[in-house]
Amino acid sequence: MNKRIGLLVGLTLATGIVLAQNKPKPEDVQTFTLKNGMKFMVLEDHSIPNANFYSFWKVGSRNEVHGITGLSHFFEHMMFNGAKKYGPKQFDRVMEANGGSNNAYTTENNTVYTDWFQSGALETIFDLEADRIRDLAIDPKMVESERGLSYRNGVPGWKIVTTALLMNWYNRWRLLSTRICFR
Fold first, then answer.
1. Is 15 part of any domain?
2. Is residue 90 part of a domain?
3. Residue 146 catalytic?
4. Strand ranges in 1-145 using DSSP code E only, listed in sequence order
5. Among candidates 79, 101, 94, 81, which has minimal Cα distance to 124?
6. What is the pLDDT of residues 86-101, one digit of tens each?
7. Does residue 72 belong to any structural domain of this protein?
8. Which one of 18, 50, 61, 136 is least enclosed by Cβ atoms within 10 Å?
């Protein structure tokens, strides 16, 4: 019994030492900016054969005014509904075919998209992201469909006027349970 406890403690300490040695430092992050102003921050980690891609957009509910609340969240959803090269529903299909998955969220200050994928698919994932950033399709049928879906995502029974009750101390709109108000 004592040998097992000693072995467990030893393995735990060894794991902690290895993890501490591999902890990234701020100087490990490479930063560069494209001519168009898009900033990239890269942290390489070759400990697993996977990669992730986060894109942060400095837009959220703080940029909304009465009459267009929910627009940031609406466009977060639209970013998955097709672009010039990859049509409707292709973003997820191509991502998943390359062993990846994705998600997104919108806060008061940011809209964030994240992709997790096999590192060998890096070029494909960048192509997917470039397509939707550069050539997002704004199909009227998809807009109506997404608009209805986003509207139904609110808390049942609440009316649009609840957005006025959900203002935070910055005098901006909260996202939680906020109905889309740009009908």
1. no
2. yes
3. no
4. 30-33, 39-42, 50-57, 101-106, 111-118
5. 94
6. 998 899 999 999 999 9
7. yes
8. 18
